[in-house]
Amino acid sequence: MNRRSFAALATLAVGATVIGACTREPEYPTISEIIATNRSLSTLATALLSSDQVAALSGGGPYTVFAPRNSAFAALPPGTLDDLLLPENRAALDAVLGAHVVRGAYLATDLINRTTLITTLDGTNFTVNGFDGMSISGAAGGAVTIVQPNIIASNGVIHVIDGVMLP
Predict the structure, then answer these.
(1) What is the pLDDT of residues 130-150, one digit of tens each?
(2) What is the CATH number of the domain that holds 107?
(3) pLDDT one-digit tens code per residue, 116-128
(4) Which of 11, 68, 123, 139 could hold 72 in an S-S bridge, CB 3.0 to 4.6 Å?
């Protein structure tokens, strides 16, 4: 092989490596990382840190998290969140948070224009109504609406909701 052929092959190899690096899938943060860095989910982040759920949402999966925004927690009866965050109420907090997590990744396209029965990690059943928006019913606390769908994470998907679903 002469120098010219070697140089041409080396140039092609470098070019292929650069192109391959550019076409890699983006690396998404985990569900826990997204929640921890999203200002509108800071109350949920605090609750997760006080529970056993944060470890599960940091890896594994895939999961779908129906994440209550801060205003959803603020709408709870006075003292409810403070009571849940007490160390002696960890089991109750885990149950509430578990009612917002589903095994499997359900994108909005999987939920829209249909009715979907979903069972959460804690065993709570609820129905996602994908007609005229997306609302969730069947859990205590009344129906909630998905207000921001499809926040993609490396271990699943987050849908921000406007209420807290109580088991």
Answers:
(1) 998 888 887 665 789 999 999
(2) 2.30.180.10
(3) 999 988 888 899 9
(4) 68
